[in-house]
Write the structure tokens for this entry.
Amino acid sequence: MEEQIINRVAGSQLITFDLEEYSSPFERVLFDIKDNLFQGLILKEKDFRDFIKSHNWSQYKGKNVAVYCSVDAVIPTWAYMLLTIALQPFANKIVFGNLEALENQLFYDALSKVEWQKFQGAKVVIKGCSKVFVPTAAYLEATDRLRNYASSIMFGEACSTVPLYKRAKS
């Protein structure tokens, strides 16, 4: 007599939280202000304002842009602000920092829109494998927010999890 195989994972009450679903589909672009520095050291206001006026900002349409300076130079705050004003009508998202800072902010923004209350009392597995890059900061943010609602939090796949948190029974 053949014994029937039962998929206990499919029948469990585990909810998989897949951070990949919160990844921005828009292209990421790094804007390095160093190309606007005189002799690679200083920013000349007149030259920079001319660049702002003449640059084709439409090339950033629908893109996520990280603005930073890759060389050790003193960049006045207003220069970053002017860049933001020029990028804002076109870019999807603008952040100060490198691509890692951009990715962290994109996930933070997406996770801030989640209705976390729907996980009240749930057993949640934060999925560990993704087809897209998910920064560690996103896992921390999701864990921090889930802890307020979930009865337990695990990491990995439903068939192989690492327990992280279990609410004490009152």
Notes: The chain has two domains: 14-24+118-166, 28-105.
